[in-house]
Design brief:
Blueprint: E1 13-14, H1 19-32, E2 34-35, E3 38-39, E4 50-51, E5 54-60, E6 72-79, E7 89-90, E8 93-94, E9 104-109, E10 116-123
Parallel strand pairs: 1-4
Antiparallel strand pairs: 2-3, 5-6, 6-10, 7-8, 9-10
Length: 135
Amino acid sequence: MQEPGAVVQFHFFGEKEDSHQAKSIMEEALKSRSIGKYTVDRNYISFEWEPALSIQSIDASEKMPVVEDSELSLACITQGSSAMQVRWFKDGAAINVQTSYRSMWTTLVPKNSKDQYTAILGFEKAHVLDSGKPI
């Protein structure tokens, strides 16, 4: 068998009940062995469903108002593609924990049994400058 000259990946994101539409489009491509001018090889097709991106909740480890100098973590619970990324913003500007002048960190908790990911932004000591405008 000849190796493909190029491999193209299609990612379909949506509700699970809509996945049959994307699957039927790919099955038609397999029958005709093409998508437009491109050849489709059954040996290089796989179909996996992942939910559309949605934010389930955003939670704080402390009740508001947060006491200055206390440890604080914010958790963003999401559902969606394993390839998604969560970026944290404050007042419209991206937060870069690597260039922060004090101890901040981020982590992504692996998917749980509900297909949810948890992205966490942590502060070793909360400061008044961490407050922001609600969105």
